[in-house]
Design a protein that fits this description.
CATH architecture of the largest domain: 3-Layer(aba) Sandwich
Helix content: 25-40%
Number of domains: 2
Distance between the termini: 28 Å
Number of helices: 10
Order of helices and strands: EEEHEEEHHHEHEHEEHEHEEEHEH
CATH superfamily of the largest domain: P-loop containing nucleotide triphosphate hydrolases
Length: about 300
């Protein structure tokens, strides 16, 4: 898949603090790309470099095959974590103002805004002042302003902050719809469940370094720990006897209908088939399923240095 954005060996220092240290990554066109990391890792600095708000000390950013230029910023939509709406202005007036800055005519901007306001069910907000809105309401408006000019690359910094579960789900659906219409989306988040639901690829930045990149499914499978869950019918004592010396049983069984479940750890891939055969001789094995680690587990292990 062709890359819309490449970050090559980017470093950035502020006085004695190194925000980014030789960071490289490639973002495929038409994907949702998660930029992950703990607070202070360097994510926001990288986002600001991509938006030309600040410049790298070393390295470069390539956009659509060429080095990032000032005019490319119009092809990018950016929703910062620090919201930037003017509190005393009316919502519709302010949305039109930002749309005109992005190059839309007043007619086109008004038409698109009305469509988005209907989609989000916020038509009645048009004449309200921003300081009358809750944080989540204001974020809906800023999301609309960010995507209104239909940029090729969208960057969201903590987009789900301030949203209740229903509106967070609405936003996820809109992000996936934008991707399906051809946009590329980068979003920075601490919400690992959102990463699994939305992201195709991720990069994990910790202490200014890129420590993990790849497809979400590939990363989750490659960092499995040979942990399995077995559903079976029969005596637990028979299963334990069959497992002895072959694998480690991690907990007691749980009963689900006529079947029981138990988790176990197998030392190596080569021994999995032998374990299945031994258990199947002792009990009726209904399923033998690998337990794939969540992105939250991988995030914690990576940041703690135990991945």
């Amino acid at each position: 898949m062709e890359d819309i954005l490449k970050v090559e060996h980017v470093s950035k220092r502020f006085a004695e603090h190194t925000a980014l240290d030789d960071v490289s990554l490639s973002i495929p066109r038409g994907s949702v790309y998660g930029l992950l990391g703990p607070n202070g890792a360097g994510k926001t600095t990288l986002i600001r470099i991509i938006n030309r708000i600040t410049a790298p000390d070393t390295g470069r950013v390539l956009f659509d095959g060429h080095e990032l230029r000032p005019e490319d910023v119009r092809r990018i939509g950016y929703l910062p974590e620090e919201r930037g709406l003017y509190k005393k202005m009316k919502v519709g007036e302010q949305a039109l103002f930002f749309a005109r800055l992005k190059g839309l005519t007043r007619h086109d901007a008004t038409q698109r805004l009305r469509e988005w306001f209907r989609k989000f069910g916020i038509e009645s907000w048009w004449g309200k002042r921003v300081d009358e809105l809750s944080k989540g309401m204001a974020q809906k408006v800023q999301f609309i302003v960010t995507v209104l000019h239909e940029p090729e690359l969208l960057i969201f910094d903590e987009p789900f902050s301030g949203f209740d579960p229903i509106n967070a789900n609405l936003l996820k659906e809109e992000i996936l719809a934008l991707r399906d219409r051809g946009a590329t989306v980068i979003f920075s988040t601490h919400n690992m469940s959102s990463v699994e639901e939305v992201c195709d690829h991720i990069t994990l930045i910790n202490k200014s370094h890129n420590i993990l990149s790849g497809r979400v499914d590939d990363i989750r499978h490659s960092h499995g720990t040979n942990l399995f869950e077995v559903s079976y019918r029969g005596e637990e004592s028979a299963l334990r006897a069959a497992a002895a010396g072959r694998c480690e049983l991690l907990d007691g069984t749980e009963t689900q209908s006529i079947y029981r479940t138990i988790r176990l750890h197998v030392a190596s891939d080569a021994e999995v088939r032998g374990v299945i055969a031994a258990l199947n001789e002792a009990v009726e094995v209904r399923s033998f399923t690998e337990v794939i680690p969540s992105m939250n587990d991988i995030f914690i292990r990576a940041v703690n240095g135990s991945l």
